[in-house]
Amino acid sequence: MWSFFVKLCRTAVTMLGSAILFWISFILLFLLFRTKRPKNFPPGPRPIPIFGNLLQLDLVDLLNDLRKLSERYGKVYSIYLGRKPAVVLNGLQAMREALVTQSVEFAGRPKGLMINHLSEGKGVGMTDGPMWKEHRRFALTTLRNFRMGKPSMEERILGEIFHIVKHLEKNAGKSTDPQTLFHKAGFNIICTVLFGTRFKHEDEFLQLNIRHITENSKIINGLWGMIYDTLPLLRTLPLPFQKAFQNMRMIRKSLADQVSQHKESRVPGEPRDLIDCYLDEMEKRGDDGSSFSENQLVFYLLDLFFAGTDTTSNTLLTAFLYLMTHPDVQERCQKEINEVLGEKEQVSFQDRHRMPYTQAMIHEIQRVADTVPLAPFHATTKDTRLMGYNIPKGTIIIPNLSSGLSEESQWKFPHEFNPSNFLNDEGEFVKPEAFMPFSAGFRVCLGEGLARMELFLILVTLLRRFKFIWPEEAGVPDYTPVFGLIHSPKPYKLGVRLRGSGDLGA
């Protein structure tokens, strides 16, 4: 009995010693990895060592959590991605002060995140410094030339709309699945600029690249993207975020093949498309030490590819979801379109100035679509101050564009779909300052002009030709978007009817 008691005591002492050793180790690790908040840094939830605030956020419904944190800590607050501090900007005042008033100080890009590793520090979207300035200037000049040249950007868009119309005519009188229809159109429009080519909707190049783009849009900023950004130790494991890198390799290969084909067929000084323009620029610069290179071109095309395909396409999907379920708005737009266009064969982008209600509807769609809820993250380029707080150089900045698009003090109807948000008392189109779906300042979206033209020409053309009806068998509409780098509506069926002569006055 005595020996048993002694063994029991020894076991208890061993267990107690192990427990004490465990807690000492935990405390030492806690002290080692404890995150120290900089002096006068924006307030926020207390981070957990190693994890930061990852375990305190609902990554499936992140925007709702960011809204709750703003209600508790204010319009400018901090969260931690692992050990990396990030400042979240909420509402018009905070975003304008950072992105516009202090645009230079907040125009950097963070390092070491998934989106950086996917782009390998190249392209234009996630670069900064001289490379970013050179390539942004080149893109703005080239895209402007395409808008004014022959065929003009408007002609390219109208040419692609013809194929949308043909598809919808075949499905008139029934329901169709629109989930890839507008992606194919957006993809082809940007392809005519980049490659001088459009692809048939069943083409493998088109279908595979659209799939890779849409998958990556959901991974970046989504659950697995946030895990990748927060926990570097997991990055080499075979987890779902590896799919984003596989997709990126496939897209890069297809773009590199396009560049190779252009090198063989181009005539220097006679550019057919953006690739030719870039290759001409490379030859002109020679070995001047600029950032222009063939490898950089591939990533440059990739950035424009992403920007030109998924955002506008998902905005259009949102548009038809709301137009089907708000027939009064659809009919009022159609009445205005009929009155303005009359017997005119096709719409022109200039016609928008005579369509205030249709303009208001399109902008209201962009507001409720909230297509890019969190702008690609910025970083401070030097130590600075924002709304009374100190922000050290290199701090990640997260502009919560979604917060401005639904800010109660900025909109007449912040939580409902209502084109009156963009109309004054005289029925004239107005654009409130809080409307920033393309971000603002130095980092405003390169494709804003193209997106605005696409949305207007496509929506007006289709509303003039068709009536869109929510299918009876579709049940109750669900407006809740699927979160990611790009918001997208949940899949739905599109009811299509041809408008007859009796519809011309309505």
TrEMBL record:
Annotated residues for binding of heme? 445
The transmembrane residues are 12-33
Annotated GO molecular function terms are:
heme binding; iron ion binding; oxidoreductase activity, acting on paired donors, with incorporation or reduction of molecular oxygen, reduced flavin or flavoprotein as one donor, and incorporation of one atom of oxygen
Please name the Pfam families in this protein's record: p450
Alphabetical list of SUPFAM superfamilies matching this protein: Cytochrome P450 (SSF48264)
Domain of life of the organism in this record? Eukaryota
Cited PANTHER family: CYTOCHROME P450 2F2-RELATED, CYTOCHROME P450 508A4-RELATED
Q: Which family does it belong to?
A: Belongs to the cytochrome P450 family.
Record protein name field: Cytochrome P450
Originating organism: Conger conger (Conger eel)
